[in-house]
Request: fold
Amino acid sequence: QVQLVESGGGLVQAGDSLRISCAASGRTFSQRTMAWFRQAPGKEREFVSAISWNTVSTYYTESVKGRFTISRDNAKNTLYLQMNNLKPEDTAVYYCAAADGAVVTRTAPLKTSYAYWGQGTQVTVSS
Reply:
């Protein structure tokens, strides 16, 4: 079992930066593909970014490329999302997700690829 706890969300202005974190329990964090999803009010949960267990591969949805950076510290069992140049449309609850193991590239954006989810952290970007 894996427990995921997100932190670092908040209220920022457009153009600001924010880093959110996800602390994972368990000894298998380093073996799992990890991801961030987000859900805005009235919308479906959508993929934001993912990172392979060894950090070699990263994936981003088009709207955040060049602004967001995903990273992980396997020694600390922690996943990060650095968000720069935030826009009001980035406002959402951000969820951390863990796969059961490695995830192949074409399935990284799929919610069904991830077995464990955190409770989410709210990010609000004002204009």
Remarks:
- The mean pLDDT is 96.
- Residues 17 and 84 are 4 Å apart (CA to CA).
